Amino acid sequence: MRTGIPPAATYCMAVVFGGLGIYMLLRRHGPNLVIGVRLPWTLADRHIWDKSWRLGAMFLVGMGIGALISWTFFFIAAAHLIILGILYPVLLYRLKYGTLRFWKDQGWADYRPVVRCEHCGHWQKLGDAADLDGCTCEACGAICRRPRKFWPPWAG
Ligand SMILES: [Zn+2]
Fold this sequence. Notes:
mainly alpha; single chain
């Protein structure tokens, strides 16, 4: 395909992005400063972090393959990575906790979730994501929030 880009640059891009994507599919890191979708909503919930990681990895592989096919594919994959990479964890978080609120303790990554009671609307700070299980509302005493299922196969 004629793109006007030297083939060497194409292969470099494919190797860099595809390689990073494959690496991310094979290995998974916990929240860190260097790599991953670093948003308050992913840092507050390890499960959402992992899912965003996997989604990001798939789009990086897509960018690698896209670079070999055409730059149009490459930029479509890149745009998806950026837009969905942010929207996806935000949506997951909203579905899981009923709010986009979070709270932060000391340190760069010490974001913690907040759950919104689905009965009375009370916002409640959680120590971490695991506290959502069996959480009862401080205001009305009901179960904070029942778990929601999310449709994509990688959502688990
Ligand atoms: Zn309540």
